[in-house]
């Protein structure tokens, strides 16, 4: 096989790679129901997601476990807030520039990334 053919095969495999960073959306960042909510604090505040923590409304949470199935990130978070300390399941699915949020087993809607 010539060098040109090898380069062509490598290029095709790289473009077809389903784990390409272009094919996946990240859930890290600030997300809100609408742009106006991006600057709020407390109730109605943006959802903030990092590699180690999630924060939303009156809950500040440390991520205890996190795994991914298909296009959904599942998080078990240890949270502190108005309800005291508790463990909360969180599911986040990035799709078409939005983030579907399920917080404590309740579907909370589609959020948009904050600027």
Task: Give short descriptive properties of this protein.
globular, 115 residues, 8-stranded antiparallel beta barrel, mainly beta
Structural summary, described in words:
The chain has 115 residues and is mainly beta. It is 12% helix and 50% strand. The protein contains one helix and eight strands; from the N terminus they run H-E-E-E-E-E-E-E-E. It has an eight-stranded antiparallel beta barrel. A hairpin with a 2-residue loop joins strand 4 (59-69) and strand 5 (72-81). The protein is globular. Residues 3-23 have low confidence and may be disordered.
Order of helices and strands: HEEEEEEEE
What's the end-to-end separation, in Å? Answer: 49 Å
Going by helix content, strand content and strand pairing, the class is: mainly beta
The biggest sheet amounts to: 8 strands, antiparallel, barrel
Cα shape? globular
Mean pLDDT comes to 81
Strand content: over 45%
Strand order within the widest beta sheet: 1-2-3-4-5-6-7-8
- The percent range for helix content is 10-25%
Number of helices: 1
In total, the number of strands is 8
Radius of gyration: 18 Å
Q: Identify low-pLDDT runs.
A: 3-23
Give a short overview.
The protein is mainly β. It is built from 1 helix and 8 strands; from the N terminus they run αββββββββ.
Describe the secondary-structure layout.
Blueprint: H1 3-16, E1 29-32, E2 47-49, E3 53-56, E4 59-69, E5 72-81, E6 84-95, E7 98-103, E8 106-113
Antiparallel strand pairs: 1-2, 1-8, 2-3, 3-4, 4-5, 5-6, 6-7, 7-8
